[in-house]
Design brief:
Layout (H helix, E strand, L loop, with lengths): L1 E5 L2 E5 L7 E5 L1 H7 L3 E4 L8 H9 L3 H6 L7 E4 L2 E3 L10 E5 L6
Parallel strand pairs: 3-7
Antiparallel strand pairs: 1-2, 3-4, 5-6, 5-7
Length: about 100
């Protein structure tokens, strides 16, 4: 753990491995699931985007329906577009959103 000096005294910053991942949901996903973000402690078996999506789908309900393999979604890890093999780690920011089209 790192220590930083803040007004009022030093603070301990937890190691990245002990921080939860932040899952951000956008557009129809946010509407259907009912939340814009969640702090998630990654289970040991979740090592990549595919594992994360499977873990979230296993919750059932709107999670399963909206993240179904047939539904088009995009994922970014730490603000970089990701594919199913992209690693996810504790402390990462994972954004899940539908594809965007414009005109």
């Amino acid at each position: 753990m790192d220590r930083v000096n803040l007004p009022g005294g030093p603070a301990v910053i937890p190691d990245a491995a002990s921080r939860p991942a932040i899952v951000l949901l956008f557009a129809r996903l946010r509407e259907a699931i009912g939340t814009a973000q969640e702090h998630l402690t990654l289970p040991d078996e979740v090592r990549d985007v595919a594992g994360l999506l499977a873990c979230l789908r296993a919750r059932g309900g709107a999670w399963e329906a909206e993240l179904a393999p047939a539904k088009p979604i995009r994922v970014a890890v730490n603000q970089e577009m990701a594919d199913s093999a992209t690693p996810v780690r504790p402390g990462d920011e994972i954004a899940i959103f539908p594809p965007v089209t414009g005109g």
